[in-house]
Amino acid sequence: MNNKDTITEESLIEDIKKAGVPEGCLLHLKVSLKSIGKVEGGPQTVLNAILKVVGDSGTIVIDSFVTSYPLPLSEKNASNISTNESPSFAGAVANAMVKHPKSVRSKHPIQRFTAIGPLAHELMDNHTPESGGYDVLERMAKMNALNLSIGRKVIGVGTTHVAIEKMKYKKKPSNMAVNYLADDGSVKCFVADWKWTCSAGFPKFLPLYEKGGALKWVKIGNAEAALTNMNKTLDIEQKRLEEDPRFFFCDDPTCKSCRLEWEHSTGNYFSVKFYSAIKLLTNPDALKYWIKNKTNKH
Predict the structure, then answer these.
(1) Conformational region of residue 213, where left means phi above 0, alpha means psi within -120 to 50, and beta covers everything else
(2) Which residues contact 245 (CB under 8 A, 6 or more apart)?
């Protein structure tokens, strides 16, 4: 299929409707703007198109997470205070939503979600520093929400994180944190209290979603995209993880998270170091990056 030269709002609306996104639905989004192509009007056009498809009775939710930093916080990192207006690393469409006049952003210091629609306050106001990082997605799954992931690199349904949390696997505690502006106006430090997970193994669930009728492959602009039912994907993930707790691990022998940091990891320190050395020696770009980082630290 030939790529579309310029993507208009009208063509996006047509694609999203053709994908099966119904009016009035609750929709979780993961969007790579670059993968869609050259969009006339940029991220705001993509957002407008989605809002017009779900209509005034629909609610859209997007990940608008903010950067966290290693402990102890350096003076520079401590000054990067998380607020409702903080930019997100989740992409241009996420930041367009953050700036939208009708958007509501959750109060969680790091895993900030942003929503627009009738259910926005119900979902966002209850996501606070006391909440789990992915509580919003768990509640959305129970509400039979849909997930639209646009762009192969961002295809994922979010519920995998929920499933892993619900399995109560033990992992080394996180040392990531951020200072945030609390409701009382004070600045507090929030330490991530959920399990950071390597997501490189998550695509292994895709065939299971397809087999279980939970996933539909679609096209949005020039992007490969996936529409999934979040309740179904969560059920599939939990059942598979009950059978194989290591199913979500990636296949990279240098991945410290999957090989070393979980209680049920089966790798060892020396094998990870060995394969990491091979990767550096056989990948010039990786070696340059490693040397640059080492140089910057000294």
Answers:
(1) left
(2) 167, 169, 264
Q: State how far the Cα of 195 lies from the Cα of 207, in Å rounded to an integer.
A: 25
The predicted-structure confidence for 196-239, as pLDDT tens digits, reads as follows: 889 899 999 999 999 999 999 999 999 999 999 999 999 999 99
Alpha-carbon span 29 to 156, nearest angstrom: 10
20 with 218: CB under 8 angstroms?
yes
- What does the chain look like in DSSP terms, one character per residue? -PPPSSB-HHHHHHHHHHHT--TT-EEEEEE-HHHH--BTTTHHHHHHHHHHHH-TT-EEEEE-----EESSPPHHHHT--B-TT---SS-HHHHHHHH-TT-EE---SSS-EEEESTTHHHHHTT--TTS-TTHHHHHHHHTT-EEEEESGGG---SHHHHHHHHTT--BPPP-EEEEEE-TTS-EEEEE--S-----TTGGGGHHHHHHTT-EEEEEETTEEEEEEEHHHHHHHHHHHHHH-TTTT--S-TT-HIIIIIBTT----HHHHHHHHHHHHHH-HHHHHHHHHHHHHT-
* Integer Cα distance of 205 and 235 in angstroms: 12
Place of tokens 């705001």: 44
Residue 137's CB: how many other CB atoms inside 10 A?
Answer: 27
Average pLDDT, the chain: 91
pTM of this prediction exceeds 0.85 = yes
